[in-house]
Amino acid sequence: MYRVLPAALVLMLVACSAPQNSDAVVAEAESTIPFSAAAVAEFDEPWAMTFLPDGRLLVTEKAGALYVVTQDGQTTPVKGVPTVDYGGQGGLGDVVVHPDFANNHLVYLSFVEAGDEDTRGAAIARATLDLTDTGPELADLNVIWRQSPKVGGRGHFSHRMAFSPDGYLFIASGERQKFTPAQDLQQNLGKIIRLNADGSIPADNPFAEQGGVAAQVWTLGHRNILGLAFDADGKLWEHEMGPAGGDEFNLIVRGENYGYPIVSDGNHYDGTPIPNHDTHPEFAAPKIQWTPVIAPAGLVIYSGEMFPAWQGNALIGGLRTQALIRVVMTGDDATEAARYDMGKRIREVEQGPDGAVWLLEDEAGGRLLRLTPTQ
Asked: What is the pLDDT of residues 49-76, one digit of tens each?
């Protein structure tokens, strides 16, 4: 049974900084929170989730566990998960299913794997999910993509995934806190990657003629992408963490350069300034930038019937803000519309088959929450 949370959820109407106007404010005020939240299960550092066609969920924990979870909270561990290099921001990450999962049972996992001499990098594995009576298990697991090169440190892996409506696999690859690789097409760090579902490289990628890792690249100049989703029109949207200020919400366009670390609407952590986007119009600018930061994590573009006023809106988890953030997209533009205080760091957002919104809280004891409209 679900446990309905106390009515401590308070709507926060907050300032939103658009890149064109740092004094822009939330466009829409709501007098009451339009949902109630029910706790379904708890996990240890949950990171991602996705729904199976039968309504069950797959949920990852950063230390390396994958679970099949029913909507009433029964959890069953999945065997055969790859060994992960756990620590800092690293470990088991995203999970998505193939668009034709009902027939081929293919799932994709992102995770951090160790390299030589205290290096590491993100990887994507594809496997068949066997949902037998003996317990769920991954079979024929195969790594189809890796960050290159592996480097030291334990931050900015990104490793979010999304399938496009036409069946391509998009991968977010963070710049690993190394800055300059985001502009280097000889490395796939700080990029959005586009692959075929089997891990091969599409011939029409924008830098395919350069060969090597450049052929994987769809866009470049990114920092730490933690949300990736397609809207109903097939447009790809992402959000990424800025440095000290300048979190971004971007419309992703084939072959574009988003400027990091040459430009940002934030500064380096030591206070060293970074030129703003408007000083370099050759780079694609964010549709929204947040200063102070929201620390975005998880992204879904809502299409359900349960919250009709939210259809076509982006729903973003906030880590630092401990909030669910709703963004309205109009054509190629975007505006923050509302921010709902959840009282905990929100790591992941998904839409359920019936249109309910599901959230994962971050850190140990993170709850799986189901949001439904207030009656």
From this structure: 999 999 999 999 999 999 999 999 999 9
The pLDDT value recorded for residue 30 is 53
For residues 25 and 49, what is the distance between their CA atoms, to the nearest angstrom?
Answer: 31
187-204 confidence digits (pLDDT tens): 999 999 999 999 999 999
Contact 298, 349 (CB under 8 A): yes
**Average of per-residue pLDDT values in the chain:** 93
Q: Where do the DSSP E strands lie in 275-356?
A: 288-290, 296-301, 314-318, 323-330, 333-341, 346-351
The span from the CA of 186 to the CA of 180, in Å, is 11
> Which residue's entry shows tokens 């280097």?
184
> Domains, the chain, ranges and CATH?
3-373 (2.120.10.30)
CA pair distance 349, 124, nearest whole angstrom: 21
Catalytic residues, by residue number, are: 156
Name the DSSP class of 103. Answer: H
32 vs 9: CA distance, rounded Å:
10
Which of 18, 4, 3 is closest to 334 using CA atoms? 18
